[in-house]
Amino acid sequence: MKRLILAAVSLAALTCTASAVTASPASSGGQTFYVSTSESDSIGRAADPTIYNIDGNTYFKLRDLGRLLDFGVTYDRATNAVHIDPDGAYVPAAGESSVIENTAATSAPALPTKQTLYLDGERISPTVYNIKGNNYIGLRALGELVDFGVSYNYDNKRITAYAAYPYAEETTWTAAMNDLANNLRLLPASAYSSTAAKYAPVVTGETSADWRALVSELRAVKRAPVYAADNGTLYRSNLYWADRLTAALTNSRSAATPAYTGSLTGLADSDLFDNPDKTALQKDFSTMAAAYLGAKPSVLSSVTVTNGYSKNARSRLSLADTYTLTGGATEADRKAAKSYFLSDMAELSALTTDSERVSYIYNLLQKEYRTGGSASWTTGYGKKSAVSAASLAAAADWMFSEAGIPAFLARSWSTAWNVVYVDGQWAVFDFTKGSTLRSLDDYRLTDTHPGSTLLLTQVMRPGAEYYNVRTATVDRYFTYTDLTGAPQATAKQMQAYIKKVNPNVPQSVIDMIPYYLSEGTAEGIRGDIAFAQSCLETGNFTFKDSAVTLEQNNFCGLGVLDNGMLGASFDTPQLGIRAQIQHLKAYANKQPLNNACIDPRFGLVTRGAAPNVQYLGIQENPQGYGWAAGADYGVKILNILENILTC
Length: 647
Fold this sequence. Notes:
By secondary structure, the protein is α+β, with helices and mostly antiparallel strands. Helix 19 (about 525-540) crosses helix 21 (about 635-645).
């Protein structure tokens, strides 16, 4: 069946009763129109029908497209109805010109009409406008009705109709699309068919979707990240991979994907970060963008940033900056280490490719050190000392600096690694896992500052643009979770979680869990967050290394201000949970308590200083207030909550 591609009506109009809107010529905004009639034609052929923009949507005359695409369009005067026949041939009306002329030269009033339309004998009801005596119908509206592909390239402002592809919504770039693109970067074209079959149902949400549906969904993406390829040329990922999938699966030549021509510094768009610190993050983003965007990221001594999250992002750590990872190395240690590795660094600098340099650094570290210890790399060389993963990452960081490879350190709760710019892209170098470079996305799952890592890699990779990765962990640094509100987790989920992580949990803990929800509801505080906090504070109710005991009914360390302090005690578990909820409310907002205050420290809190979970950590709170001083305290709570919600 021949597919109908785009549409609009150039026939008699009914009397209009609604008020007019303004229709602007699409050409005035630089938009052009192309038509593709086969699977292998990724670009299409240029055409110049009459096109108007109304409220951000494009409207076309149907007869123009009938002639261009050869589908049937007839008008029944007796019923004042237009009939569209996708399988019929186009037949010109009496006296109709053989030349398609674009008559949209200036803006014009557009009046809604009630033109009757039929598609294959079935009545359809899209919005139709009358402009200068002709009826126009929306491109996407008709595309959805008759199932044809519609694409708009935001780089070159090209509208393309794809006869051979199904309709897809104008979506945003998703985690599944990100995974697909990451796989396609690594796979040969021979593997595209199986990869497309795997991802088509996931990306489109349709279990029966094939590769054509996948390509259509990619083309429909409104804003895709920019992908750097072919010696630094920048492309929108959706069009780049849609063209290459099409070429591989139709045995045709790959389309000439339009290069991205936007300003690199303009990638820091206004919606980059959705959190209370957007202004500060945007300022930091612009600062780092100015320093790093270019043919190759610069190697600078430092970049000054101010925000609580981006301040943890490190560009080029000096050797002195790594002392916290090396057991307090001295200036004498630094000089001795530089002298010891002097000849090695000369050999390293003489290598001609980044891949050779990475391999050299790995072999050098392997020769000089062992893992699993606590010695500093600045003193452990020459005797095969056992050093920590963090110290090895610090050693590698210095060596990457000597080699002229842009890099920075990233850390998790228990280890550290290097993020390096090699062969035109960012990757992970983790000495503890061998010499092979690894996916940055995989390591964001455990990064204690994934927000920082994401921010840096976005501004340091030419053409990079923010998009969600497959883990929600990164989002927790950019989209904040309010303490106030209804819980998401149920009592059964919380009980299942604690039994899973602590099989020996006392029955009294299981029995008291509903109090988190009832007490939270009483004060408008999320009880599931309070329970997750209790799990963090008590070691999942094992009370191992905790300043409080089960008998105190203090499940959040309330009143423990220093090591060795006993903290507050309460007569019953319910009262202990009530005090915890009240203390959270003191941080969350300035509303009065609904129950009598039993929190002994309620009046000591600066009310409303931590309205979201992330700000419970003093290090992350822009005012310097908070519940706990440990890094990423709030994110640790959210990590536990995520696990609870999966039970």
